[in-house]
Fold this sequence. Notes:
Elements: H1 8-12, H2 16-45, H3 49-68, H4 71-85, H5 89-126, H6 129-142, H7 146-161, H8 166-188, H9 198-223, H10 231-263, H11 267-303, H12 307-334, H13 347-379, H14 383-407, H15 411-436
Helix pairs in contact: 2-8, 2-11, 3-5, 3-6, 4-5, 4-7, 4-10, 4-11, 5-6, 5-7, 5-10, 6-9, 7-9, 8-9, 10-11, 10-14, 10-15, 11-12, 11-13, 12-13, 13-15, 14-15
Amino acid sequence: MEPIGETEDALDRAGPRRILGIAVPTLGVLVAEPLYLLFDIAVVGRLGALALAGLAVGAVILGTVSTQLTFLSYGTTARAARRHGAGDRTGAVEEGVQASWVGVVVGLVIVAVIQVFAVPLCSVLAGGGEIAEEALGWVRIALFGVPLILLSMAGNGWMRGVQDVRRPLTYVVVGLGISAVLCPVLVYGLLGAPRMELAGSAVANLVGQSVSGVLFVYALLREGVSLRPDPPVMRAQLVLGRDLIVRSLSFQVCFVSAAAVAARFGAASVAAHQLVLQLWNLIALTLDSLAIAAQTLVGAALGAGRVGSAKAIARRVTGWSEIFALILTAVFAAGAGAIPLLFTDDPQVLDRTHLIWWFFLAMIPVAGAVFALDGVLLGAGDAAFLRTATLIAALAGFLPLIWLSLVFDWGVAGIWSGLVAFMLLRLIAVLARARSGRWARAGAEVPSGAA
């Protein structure tokens, strides 16, 4: 008997409407937190440079932890989507239960460890002094939100896997909306609340994260599945997570190295690098929403035993992502003179920004294919391949060029040449893997060799 899950017709009809039906709400989830962080910065910034610097240091600590644990969303989506495709919704939701347990346990360990080492961490990042003291107070409070952040990641993961993408957007927006209301109230002491200054930002974050976390737990409770821990499933999730963490660390090494080298070329260079990098991050989030649609649909197709449909979806989503990337390239090419002026009028920064701009434009079409195929391979549970490919691209493409740019004084052009090389090597790797078809292994379980 064939599994009762996604029908072949339904999978083959995964056209623009269905793809966008997953991608658009997912994009909302992806951009909601960065937008809130900008609001948080604006509120805290009115307290002065010291508070803003403390927030920046604290956010680096919390953001680094969160970034390295995104396997709770991406890995859970891959596993839940396969079960959903096979017609096993209960099994898909149970993947979310186990991912939630992993998130809570790992989150509590992180809280304990970083609370112990919070003083030296803040001191190293801030260079000691008043900034470290400001950051320490924020971190002590905000850290308690880590298990809640990981609960939300796990919730996003299983709900994407069953193609329920509207409720996660609601849960995230409700939590961040509450944080946005509380932040100025607690920071400035409005409406009779105590004036907590920077600590108020951390409390507002924590309350909003608590609301989102509770909503995701409520979604699990409504499914009526067993909430008991299942160690074998949790171990399988951690194996998949290990590969995704290594892949994520490769990205972190690249971008931290780029910032460190840019800083050695002067303030104008690092400012221009940071400006264009933020635009790149915005494009990455936009394209990542299509990649998540690919991940969800490919996982469902393979879970349903529809290898042909999975390959057709891979081609279709990659094509749409590439078209969208080319449109973005055209927009940013047309705005090459005007867009940087929205952020700065410093002549030196603008000069270096215009130099970087053409590397930036060259990367966007490459990203259209790379991000989509990343999503395809993640949906197939091919995390081990992605880990190895990303490491090779970083070690063979990016890092040699960036350090040579420092030695031979190539400036920001050398840094962004390294980023282009990193993307091109990833493109070659994922294209070769996609064409080989070795990733397309059917079944409700993520194949052990894929992870």
